[in-house]
Amino acid sequence: MTQAWNEIRLDASLTYQIARTHASIRRVMESICKQHAGLNVNQWKLLAIVAKFQPARMADLTRWVTFDRAFISRAAQELEKRGLIERVAEERDKRLAILKLSDDGARVYRQVAAELDRVQAAAFAGYKQRDVSLFFLMLNTLDERLDAYQAVRASLEGPQPDAAPPRPAPRRRAARNE
Reduced to 3 states, what is the DSSP secondary structure of residue 98? Predict the structure, then answer.
């Protein structure tokens, strides 16, 4: 039996607990990123993704971050301006950019990543490694299931029109001759 929304205990609500935990993590990350590198969290995420997949094509980064291409482009420009990443044109298609960390970017990445590793270790202190591994497995599984759920919902709803069809012009009544 499903409960009405106002009867659900927030401590057992996935959306509430994930949102609360995300807010806590984000506050810690903002502080660390700003303190060590003067970065915001989104710039850090892009820097970390480039570090993991470098050399990385900008077009491929959209699979790993939750930003659109325009945001990735702006964040990459800011990181490049600060000397943390280098942008190189792809050999086959000069319009496409390849990103990699600069030496300074690698240094900043190592500093911030080390501090975030310490935060994670503190957060999981007292848990057995198998429980931590299970936690990450559950998060990945939840992510996959929610993506699948959304895909099914979208397919059942059918294509969504971008905009309402234009309204026909109002008809004018012909004047009566009397």
Answer: strand
